[in-house]
């Protein structure tokens, strides 16, 4: 699941809380952030007043009503991701709400969702995948996406110290820039500014459900900087990721087997590449795996 389609963020304007007592902070203790929507005039409180900036509040998918979750899915996820990359609405609800919910964060501007980040744990919580990152087009350039990646994602990863953090992005050789999907090269630069490194292996996203093909033409990034994480952890993530979505039989597929073996042999401290080397990442032939192959119990 490629994480996002909006990645040319600048700094986020912030308004500090009025005192040190906790005012100006949300229920998580994080500062309340304000940002004006580009292309709008803000909201005035009375005739002649200066426009006010909408207040951004953080919450989780689990805290939304069903109608609000549907709105987030339709406005942020569906326009941002190709169908083969996207969980169904019911799968999103099942995965990110309830007692075993995976990490989620929704950013609301005056009650309207303007940003979303979803994650998923794999390999016994040794690896965290940045599953989806999407922002309302009207908030792009405000730094919202940058803040989610630089502040919230490390907070999630801190729940399992030393965890590997990875993300999938489009390979510019396979997916050209367009109005709907954005610019893959700009996206790589965005993650590069946040310390991402390329995994120099041919990568393919697993099929996410019956009738859904694997997604060819992808790159895998490492986002964390934890020392001492080995290729075994990356291999365990990949094996778990494919097994959960395609069933354990996927590990016998030659494409997957080569990917897992290549990951295990990598030195994750010194063997990864800067993001500007994306043209040099080797590619592999399409897997040819049928889209309706057997599924595992962990399907999402």
TrEMBL record:
UniProt-annotated stretches for the region Disordered: 1-52, 276-300
One GO MF annotation is:
acyltransferase activity, transferring groups other than amino-acyl groups
Q: Superkingdom, according to UniProt?
A: Bacteria
Gene3D superfamilies reported for this sequence: 3.40.630.30
The family database entries (InterPro entries) matched by this protein are listed as: Acyl_CoA_acyltransferase (IPR016181), GNAT_dom (IPR000182)
Tell me which SUPFAM superfamilies the record gives: Acyl-CoA N-acyltransferases (Nat) (SSF55729)
Ranges of Low complexity compositional bias? 39-49
Which Pfam families does its entry note?
Acetyltransf_1 (PF00583)
**Domain annotation N-acetyltransferase: ranges:** 59-226
Question: What is the protein name stated in its UniProt record?
Answer: N-acetyltransferase domain-containing protein
Q: Which organism is it from?
A: Cellulomonas biazotea
């Amino acid at each position: 699941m490629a994480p996002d389609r909006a990645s040319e963020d600048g700094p986020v304007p912030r308004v500090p809380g009025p005192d040190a007592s906790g005012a100006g902070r949300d229920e998580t203790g994080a500062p309340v952030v304000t940002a004006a929507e580009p292309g709008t005039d803000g909201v005035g409180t009375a005739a002649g007043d200066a426009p006010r900036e909408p207040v951004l509040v953080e919450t989780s998918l689990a805290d939304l009503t069903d109608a609000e979750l549907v709105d987030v899915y339709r406005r942020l996820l569906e326009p941002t991701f190709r169908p083969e990359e996207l969980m169904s609405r019911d799968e999103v609800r099942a995965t990110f709400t309830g007692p075993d919910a995976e990490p989620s964060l929704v950013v609301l501007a005056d009650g309207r969702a303007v940003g979303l980040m979803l994650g998923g744990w794999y390999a016994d919580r040794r690896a965290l995948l940045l599953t989806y990152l999407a922002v309302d087009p009207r908030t792009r350039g405000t730094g919202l996406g940058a803040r989610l990646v630089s502040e919230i994602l490390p907070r999630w990863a801190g729940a399992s110290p030393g965890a590997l953090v990875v993300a999938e992005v489009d390979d510019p050789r396979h997916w050209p820039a367009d109005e709907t999907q954005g610019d893959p090269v700009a996206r790589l630069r965005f993650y590069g500014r946040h310390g991402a490194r390329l995994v120099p292996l041919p990568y393919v996203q697993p099929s996410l459900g019956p009738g859904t093909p694997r997604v060819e033409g992808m790159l895998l990034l490492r986002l964390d900087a934890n020392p001492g994480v080995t290729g075994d952890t990356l291999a365990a993530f990949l094996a778990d990721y494919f097994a959960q979505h395609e069933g354990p039989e996927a590990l016998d597929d030659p494409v997957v087997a080569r990917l897992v073996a290549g990951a295990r042999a990598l030195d994750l401290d010194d063997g990864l590449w800067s993001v500007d080397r994306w043209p040099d990442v080797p590619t592999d032939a399409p897997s040819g795996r049928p889209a309706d192959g057997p599924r595992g119990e962990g399907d999402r």
